[in-house]
Amino acid sequence: MDLFTAMDISASGMRAQRTRMNIISSNIANANTTRTEEGGPYKRRDVIFRENSFEKQLSSVEVEAIVEDPTQGNSIFNPGNPDADEDGYVTMPNVNIMEEMVNMVGATRAFEANTTAIKAQKDMALRALSIGR
What we know:
- The protein is built from two helices and four strands, in the order αββββα.
- It has helices at 3-29, 97-131, and strands at residues 45-54, 57-68, 75-77, 89-91.
- Helix 1 runs antiparallel to helix 2.
């Protein structure tokens, strides 16, 4: 594996984790959204990654899909809410803020790991270039 291939792999990981962080941010921002354009409460979304391999070596990571979590959100009693049903209950989004924050920390750490790998690869290239001086 050459230096640029290693950088491409790390860059693809950074792109994938950036997408994951954006989706997590959207989940957190819509944790209390009870009405969407599609109708009903916001549905938590998650990112599915796909590993691209060539000759049994990792070549990149890509976002395969962004999927909605099918679980039902909690219902709370709030008869004054315009989204309440005839019994006064409002179905809330299926977003757990604590779970999303843990996911965000994981995505951030993965992004930082790829950043560190690219920096190490750059430093190796600069050292290799300085050998000939």
